[in-house]
Amino acid sequence: KARRTLAIIKPDGLLGNYTDDIKRTISEYGFSIVKEQIVQLGEATVKRFYAEHSSKSFFSSLVKYMTSGPVLVMVLEKDNAVADWRALMGPTDASKAKITHPHSIRAKCGLDTEKNCVHGSDSTKSAQREILFFFDELALGE
Ligand code: CMP
């Protein structure tokens, strides 16, 4: 099983001062943060990162949200990292997470189905792509 996943603390998480809390949870659950970087993403970068959602109705709003402030991008490592980080984040819709997964990260710092505070790769394959995207190939100046 893949030992690494990509996690992002989104602009609402970073600006809302949830970073220390989230990092504490990350280490409590046995992940180590092997790489991290704060970046202000530009429109082109977000569009490329979320290309699979480009035809969705929420795409332009998602791009606006993800460029609204800096994000913290991290590579997390532990056994079964992809699935375990997704479980720890909770469901995409943070308003539902508050009811069904009250101890999840999204329940604590997210707002709704868009402003859900954190991202995690959805598969081993995505994790490989997303880690390379941020920590290898991405030219940060657009
Ligand atoms: P994330 O897991 O980072 O992957 C895609 C993102 O799109 C998701 O988190 C949300 O921020 C956003 N998103 C997903 N579904 C919706 C939706 N129905 N409406 C608005 N934004 C969404």
Automatic annotation (TrEMBL):
It comes from the Eukaryota. Residues 2-142 form the Nucleoside diphosphate kinase-like domain. The active site is at H119. ATP binds at K10, F58, R86, T92, R106, N116. Belongs to the NDK family. This is Transcription elongation factor spt6. It comes from Pisum sativum (Garden pea).
